[in-house]
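Might I ask for a little of your time on a matter of protein folding? The record follows directly beneath this note:
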Amino acid sequence: GRKSEPFQSVVDHMASHLGVSPSRILLLFGETELSPAATPRTLKLGVADIIDCVVLASSSEDAEVSQQLRLRVQGKEKHQMLEISLSQDSPLKTLMSHYAEAMGLSGHKLSFFFDGTKLSGKELPADLGMESGDVIEVWA
C-alpha cells in the first residue's frame, strides 16, 4: 500500500525523526522538487529510485524573527530612548511614527539621523546596512 501513500507521510516522518518542522523538509527526485501531495505511483517510481531529503536551513517563520532588528532611537534627553523592533524591509517611517507616538510627539517636527545622515523615512534598514543595536538619533 506504500505506493499510493503521499510523500507528506515521508515528510512528517523525516521531520519528527530530525526534530525539524515539516515545512523545512524538501524531497528531491533528481532535480525535481516533489510535492508532499504526490505519491510514488503518480511519479512511477521504482524501488531503486532514490529520493533526496533536504532540510532547509530554516523555515520562513524563523527567518522572520532573525530579520527583526532591535534599533535604539535616542532623543536629546537620556530618557527619550526607545528600543523598536523593525524588520529589515520595513521603511523607517514605521519606526519614526512609532517613536513619535510613544514619546507623545506626534505632529511635532522630528529629524532622525543615522550615522550622521538625515533620514527621510523611505529608507529600509537593509539599504543602510543597519544591525541590531544600532542607534538612530532624534532631534526635535
